[in-house]
Design brief:
Blueprint: H1 25-36, E1 39-40, H2 43-47, H3 51-54, E2 57-58, H4 66-82, H5 86-99, H6 107-130, E3 141-145, H7 154-157, E4 163-165, E5 185-189, H8 191-197, E6 207-208, E7 217-218, H9 231-237, H10 240-254
Parallel strand pairs: 1-2
Antiparallel strand pairs: 3-4, 3-5, 6-7
């Protein structure tokens, strides 16, 4: 079983790599399987879902035709399996739609659709790997990472390089993707690394400085993204996840 990258202390961590396409075959296989299983949904059906269930759906703004959606979803899954990047996957999506007799999307929209579907697939894949019972004792903590550039949103930047125990309730909402075109990811921090460098996972909820100069406020994922691709499935067999989610939401609201 291959695992996602492990973390080193912040001063030793390299620049953040891009997360798509992945060169890890296990990560890729899980991501593709998740995309293929996404439920086809109209925007109205999708928007009626609670955040923790949205990653299981596949929708395109303004599209009601589920045959159209099926062509698009399957195209994105094939692109992910082939290792195409965002631009290539968007172009392939429009070619698939044209072959099926549909008018394609605007290029930027096609890239966005492909990007978000694959990002949720990778998010699900990393959740599965890091929550595998076989690594629980090896990886006691996780670290949130951004791409550390000017495009990173302030709320997401507030989470960058933060290390929390795997039991931190905030992971139920702070698991990428945490917004449209989010490029963040989570890596495991091994017990060996924690012991060797004396790392102490934080317990504090992240804060950020709003642009209007107001006092620092508690950071939350973007609207509609307070869920993650793995927790809703875990919730079905682990009722404690529901309690963790409610506790995390309450904690975030009380600290705004």
């Amino acid at each position: 079983m291959r695992l996602v990258r492990f973390a080193e202390p912040a001063s030793r961590l390299p620049s953040s790599p891009t997360t798509w396409p992945s060169k890890n075959p296990d990560t890729l296989e899980r991501a593709v399987r998740f995309i293929e299983g996404k439920r086809l949904m109209t925007p109205r059906e999708f928007n009626a879902l609670r955040d923790q269930y949205k990653s299981a759906g596949f929708k395109i703004a303004g599209v009601q035709n589920k045959a159209f959606l099926r062509v698009a979803r399957d195209s994105v899954a094939r692109s992910a399996a082939r290792g195409l990047d965002r631009r290539g996957a968007g172009a392939a999506l429009n070619r698939s739609l044209a072959r099926a007799g549909y008018v394609g999307l605007e290029p930027w929209h096609a890239r966005l659709v492909a990007n978000m579907a694959v990002a949720s697939g990778y998010g699900r894949s990393s959740w599965e790997a890091l929550h595998d019972p076989r690594v629980r004792g090896i990886i006691p903590a996780f670290q949130y990472r951004t791409q550390e550039d000017a495009k990173v949103r302030p709320e997401h930047a507030s989470m960058n390089r933060r290390i929390y125990k795997r039991t931190w309730g905030g992971w139920v909402v702070w698991w990428p993707p945490n917004g449209y075109n989010c490029r963040c990811y989570v890596i495991g921090v091994t017990k060996r690394t924690i012991d060797a460098y004396g790392i102490k996972p934080t317990t504090k909820w992240p804060t950020f400085q709003a642009e209007d100069g107001r006092p620092r406020v508690r950071a939350r994922p973007d609207d509609g993204f307070e869920g993650n691709p793995g927790s809703y499935i875990r919730e079905q067999s682990h009722p404690s996840t529901s309690r963790e989610r409610k506790a995390a939401a309450a904690q975030g609201r009380s600290r705004r």
